């Protein structure tokens, strides 16, 4: 087995050109359902993270997307599901999406940049936010969002399924079920 990291878009492209056999990534409307099958594995709520002082200040005021857009943001690469979703939220609130200070899909780098910045924030999945609290010292701003991130899914080519791919999918589902229950 070989593991590759990248954006969902990059990995799905490699799945379609037969470089990869399976992809675990965020569901996206950009995929071609005629070529790729998708199985939703789990959903994740979003969390806003910030450095300690900024998180404390933000926690004292109600959620205001206009004010948040004025902060320094660390976001994923353009055209990734989370980046598109964050942009939609700002547009829905009647304000332009923030231009990111940094773009990265490395959770550790996101946490380190946010922790080091006086005005820096990011939106990440809840489980990653909790890990970044421990690893980098960021804090989770206690806002409640009425939306969830695009779900994490297992993608396979629609044609030519192999028994080993099915075995992997079954094992992955069992592992997730065991970890999500505990």
Automatic annotation (TrEMBL):
Occurrences of domain LysR substrate-binding (ranges): 2-173
Coiled-coil stretches noted in the UniProt entry, renumbered to this chain: none
InterPro entries assigned: HTH-type_LysR_regulators (IPR050950), LysR_subst-bd (IPR005119)
Protein name: LysR family transcriptional regulator
């Amino acid at each position: 087995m070989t593991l590759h990291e990248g954006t969902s878009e990059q990995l799905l492209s490699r799945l379609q050109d037969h470089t990869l056999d399976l992809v675990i990534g965020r569901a996206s409307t950009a995929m071609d359902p005629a070529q790729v099958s998708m199985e939703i594995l789990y959903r994740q709520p979003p969390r806003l993270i910030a450095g300690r002082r900024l998180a404390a200040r933000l926690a004292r005021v109600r959620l205001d997307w206009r004010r948040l857009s004025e902060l320094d943001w660390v976001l994923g690469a353009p055209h990734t599901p989370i980046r598109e979703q964050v942009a939609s939220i700002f547009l829905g609130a009647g304000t332009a999406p923030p231009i990111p200070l940094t773009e990265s899909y490395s959770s550790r780098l996101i946490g380190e940049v946010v922790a080091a910045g006086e005005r820096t924030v990011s939106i990440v999945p809840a489980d990653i936010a909790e890990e970044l609290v421990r690893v980098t010292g960021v804090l989770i701003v206690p806002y409640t969002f009425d939306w969830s991130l695009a779900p994490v899914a297992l993608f396979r080519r629609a044609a030519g399924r192999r028994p080993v791919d099915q075995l992997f999918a079954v094992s992955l589902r069992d592992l997730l079920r065991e970890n999500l229950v505990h």
